[in-house]
């Protein structure tokens, strides 16, 4: 990789926090600045690299053409769909690892809450309604993990103590230290036996709209669809048909569109729990992203290859 020295941070606070953690040699080697759509005062023309904002990165991405010779884009998110069109033209690195623990715990929380009816219990509390009924346990469920990256692995680890039967599906079939990873070609056999589907695969040209009407129709009655990946992986209209019929259940941290309009039918769909895309946005995020950015800059200052490359 060609030399990178001029690096823009999206805001002065993040710059200050990372800079204070850098070695003296890295601080001397790098020219660290603040530039983003929200902080556009400096001239970005000669920048080598840009660290995108955690939230609302789209507006900064739209201004990247103001940079003459951009070499590297560092995302603070695990997903990189906002710059997917630049992959291959510019080196793109992600914040993979910063969100894994938080997103994994939310995935498990969403599944537990919907299976055990905790969302309904919260609504009943407002009306003083005592609705005692037997519900599904997470124990003994057949869970399919669609996505086996860093977050998928953290979900797998957290599910193990719940006595579930886990099937993992990746983009291709393979074996790893935890057993078999099935490929997308195996889904036709896997989906009819899936009681809980957890979606955490990245959004790209192969996965956009992947969970469509045909896909959902292969799930058995009563199956739970939990999406903590990206909203556009799921065809919202197709999911709505299944939810409104009462055949499937859903626990969603991500939806399409986002933010979900207040009059969208998904809000009132039965058997549906929705969180406002908060999977990675917890107290666990900041110390982890600081560590990732600090290590990335130390590598760049030393002339080494960056990590978390797409």
Task: Offer a quick outline of the entry.
The protein is α/β, with parallel strands linked by helices and 310 residues long. 29% of the residues lie in helices and 16% in strands.
Descriptive notes:
The protein has 310 residues and is α/β, with parallel strands linked by helices. It contains 10 helices and 13 strands. An 8-stranded mixed beta sheet has the order 8-9-7-6-10-11-12-13, with helices on one face. Strands 2-1-3-4-5 form a 5-stranded parallel beta sheet. The longest helix has 17 residues. The chain starts with 5 loop residues before the first strand and ends in a 9-residue tail after the last helix.
Provide the descriptors you would attach to this structure in a database record.
310 residues, alpha/beta, Rossmann fold, eight-stranded mixed sheet, five-stranded parallel sheet
């Amino acid at each position: 990789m060609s030399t990178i020295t001029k690096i823009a941070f999206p805001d002065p606070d993040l710059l200050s926090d990372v800079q204070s953690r850098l070695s003296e040699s890295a601080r001397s080697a790098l020219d660290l600045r603040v530039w983003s759509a929200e902080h556009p005062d400096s001239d970005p023309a000669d920048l080598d690299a840009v660290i995108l904002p955690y939230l609302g990165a789209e507006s900064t991405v739209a201004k990247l053409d103001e940079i003459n010779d951009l070499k590297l884009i560092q995302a603070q998110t695990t997903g990189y769909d906002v710059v997917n069109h630049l992959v291959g033209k510019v080196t793109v690195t992600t914040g993979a690892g910063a969100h894994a623990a938080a997103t994994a715990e939310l995935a498990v929380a969403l599944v537990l809450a919907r299976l055990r009816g905790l969302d309904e219990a919260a609504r009943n509390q407002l009306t003083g309604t005592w609705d005692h009924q037997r519900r599904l346990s997470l124990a003994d469920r057949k869970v399919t993990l669609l996505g086996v990256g860093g977050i998928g692995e953290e979900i797998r680890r957290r599910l193990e103590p719940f006595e579930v039967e886990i099937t993992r599906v990746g983009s291709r079939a393979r074996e790893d230290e935890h057993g078999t990873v099935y490929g997308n070609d195996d889904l036709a056999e896997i989906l009819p036996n899936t009681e809980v589907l957890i979606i955490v695969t990245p959004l790209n040209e192969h996965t956009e709209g992947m969970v469509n009407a045909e896909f959902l129709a292969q799930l058995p009655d009563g199956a739970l669809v939990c999406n903590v990946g990206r909203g556009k992986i799921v065809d919202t209209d197709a999911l709505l048909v299944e939810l409104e019929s009462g055949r499937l259940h859903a626990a969603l941290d991500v939806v399409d569109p986002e933010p979900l309009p207040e009059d969208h039918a998904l809000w009132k769909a039965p058997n549906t729990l929705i969180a406002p895309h908060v999977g990675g946005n917890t107290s666990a995020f900041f110390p982890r992203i600081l560590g990732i950015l600090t290590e990335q800059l130390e590598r760049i200052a030393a002339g080494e290859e960056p990590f978390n490359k797409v």
